[in-house]
C-alpha cells in the first residue's frame, strides 16, 4: 500500500479523517462564525453546498466546539422518510420512546426540551430530501407556543434545499432562518493548502506532490474536497505501483485517464 511506500503514518485523504486532519480554512471559519451565532442567539440555521464540499466536516468541527454542559447535539441524516417517521427519529434521538400519534410526538419533542438542562441541537443532514410535510412539521416545532423554541435546528443539504425553501408553501419556515451559509468549493490556493495540510498531518515527505500537480488536481476536481481526496488517493496508488517517489503533472493526467475520473 502507498502508506509504506511513502512512509506515511496515516491515510492523508481518507473519507472521514480524524478531527486534527480537518483544515479550518477561511470557508470553515466563516461557517463556524455563523453557526456560533446560531448557538448564542438563533433558532434555525441553514447550511447548503454541493455534495462533497465539506458540509459534514464543518458540522463536525461545530459540534466538537459545543459545550457538553450546555448543549445536546443530535445528528440525523436518514431524512428520506415520511414526516411522522422523521418526528419518531427525533424523539428516539432525544432518548424517548416514540408514542402513537403526531400530536403525542410533538409533545414528546417539546416537553422534554423545556425540562432539559442542556439545550438540544438538532442537526438534520441531507435536508434536501425532506418531504414537504416534514418541513411543515419543523416549522410548527420552531414556531410552537409564545416562548422561544427550547432547542436549535440546523438544516444541512445540497443546493436544491434553498430552492425548496424559497417556495411559497415554505416561506414561513424560510423566514425563521436566523443564519444562512453557502459552503463553496475550494479555490486553487485553498486546494493547494488543503493538499499540503492533509499530507503534512499524515507524515508525508515534502514535496510529495509538486506544485503544478496540485493545481492540476484542483482543475480536474473543481475544488470539491471529496473529489480532491479521490484523485489524490488514486495518484498516490498509481505512483506507488510504479515505484515513483513524487507525483507530477504527467502522473496526474495519466491517473485521470486510467481511472476515468473526467
Question: In summary, what is this structure?
Answer:
With 262 residues, the chain is an alpha/beta fold.
Characterise the protein shown here.
This protein is an alpha/beta fold and 262 residues long. It is built from twelve helices and five strands. The chain has helices at 2-5, 26-41, 55-65, 83-93, 102-115, 132-142, 160-166, 171-175, 188-201, 211-221, 225-241, 249-259, and strands at residues 44-48, 71-76, 119-124, 152-157, 177-182. A five-stranded parallel sheet has the order 2-3-4-1-5, sandwiched between helices. Strand 3, helix 6 (132-142) and strand 4 (152-157) form a beta-alpha-beta unit. The longest helix has 17 residues, at 225-241. The chain is elongated and about 65 Å long.
Mass-distribution shape: elongated
CATH superfamily of the largest domain: P-loop containing nucleotide triphosphate hydrolases
| Radius of gyration of CA atoms, rounded to a whole number | 21 Å
What share of the residues does DSSP label as strand, in percent? 5-15%
Number of H/I helices: 12
- Output the strand order for the largest sheet: 2-3-4-1-5
Runs with pLDDT <50, length 5+? none
Could you estimate the helical fraction of the residues in percent? 40-55%
Report the order of strands and helices: HHEHEHHEHEHHEHHHH
Average pLDDT number: 89
Distance between the termini: 25 Å
Number of domains: 2
Q: In CATH's first tier, which class of the largest domain applies?
A: Alpha Beta
Report the strand count. Answer: 5
Q: Major beta sheet, specifics?
A: 5 strands, parallel
Amino acid at each position: 500500500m502507498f502508506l509504506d511506500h511513502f512512509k506515511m503514518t496515516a491515510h492523508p485523504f481518507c473519507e472521514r479523517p480524524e478531527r486534527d486532519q480537518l483544515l479550518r480554512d477561511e470557508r470553515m471559519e466563516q461557517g463556524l462564525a455563523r453557526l456560533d451565532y446560531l448557538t448564542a442567539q438563533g433558532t434555525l440555521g441553514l447550511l447548503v453546498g454541493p455534495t462533497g464540499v465539506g458540509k459534514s466536516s464543518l458540522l463536525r468541527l461545530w459540534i466538537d466546539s459545543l459545550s457538553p454542559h450546555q448543549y445536546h447535539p443530535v445528528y440525523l441524516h436518514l431524512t428520506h422518510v415520511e414526516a411522522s417517521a422523521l418526528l419518531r427519529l427525533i424523539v428516539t434521538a432525544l432518548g424517548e420512546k416514540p408514542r402513537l400519534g403526531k400530536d403525542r410526538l410533538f409533545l414528546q419533542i417539546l416537553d422534554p426540551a423545556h425540562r432539559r438542562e442542556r439545550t438540544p441541537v438538532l442537526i438534520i443532514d441531507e435536508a434536501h430530501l425532506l418531504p414537504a410535510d416534514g418541513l411543515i412539521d419543523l416549522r410548527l416545532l420552531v414556531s410552537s407556543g409564545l416562548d422561544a423554541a427550547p432547542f436549535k435546528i440546523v438544516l444541512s443539504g445540497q443546493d436544491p434545499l434553498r430552492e425548496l425553501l424559497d417556495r411559497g408553501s415554505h416561506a414561513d419556515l424560510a423566514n425563521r432562518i436566523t443564519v444562512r451559509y453557502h459552503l463553496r468549493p475550494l479555490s486553487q490556493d485553498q486546494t493547494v493548502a488543503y493538499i499540503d495540510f492533509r499530507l503534512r498531518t499524515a507524515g508525508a515527505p515534502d514535496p510529495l506532490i509538486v506544485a503544478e500537480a496540485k493545481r492540476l488536481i484542483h482543475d480536474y476536481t473543481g475544488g470539491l474536497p471529496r473529489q480532491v481526496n479521490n484523485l489524490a488517493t488514486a495518484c498516490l496508488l498509481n505512483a506507488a505501483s510504479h515505484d515513483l517517489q513524487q507525483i507530477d503533472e504527467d502522473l496526474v493526467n495519466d491517473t485521470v485517464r486510467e481511472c476515468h475520473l473526467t
